[in-house]
Amino acid sequence: MPDKQRKRWLWTGLTGSVIAALCCFTPLLVVLLGAVGLGALTGYLDYVLLPALAVFLGLTVYGLARRPRATGRQCCAEQAGTPVVSDGTGQGVQG
Question: Would you say the pTM of this structure is higher than 0.85?
Fold first, then answer.
């Protein structure tokens, strides 16, 4: 997965999680709906917000899990002081 797409998944998940958590655990959305005259919908917020929070947390975990990992060669080469040159595939080549 390209790094740009992984970052997009991660930021979408984080942003959605924060917004859903704010709406779930604070009276922010209840006050807002009451102010615009849609206070009757507050009873149904749990049916929408809790699944949305779960989906966005899942996106965050997915974005974090798809992070490129260092290979054993890169790790050992960096400790030995040997420069590591990227070959464009995410694998390090000692050079």
Answer: no
Question: Cα–chain-centroid distance for residue 8?
Answer: 8
User: Residue 94: beta bridge partners?
Assistant: 84
Residues 6+ apart with CB under 8 A from 74: 84, 91, 92
43 class by beta-carbon count within 10 Å (0-12 exposed, 13-18 middle, 19+ buried): exposed
- pLDDT (0 to 100) of residue 87: 61
pLDDT value for 13: 95
3-state secondary structure of 41: helix
Alpha-carbon distance 27 to 90, whole Å? 45
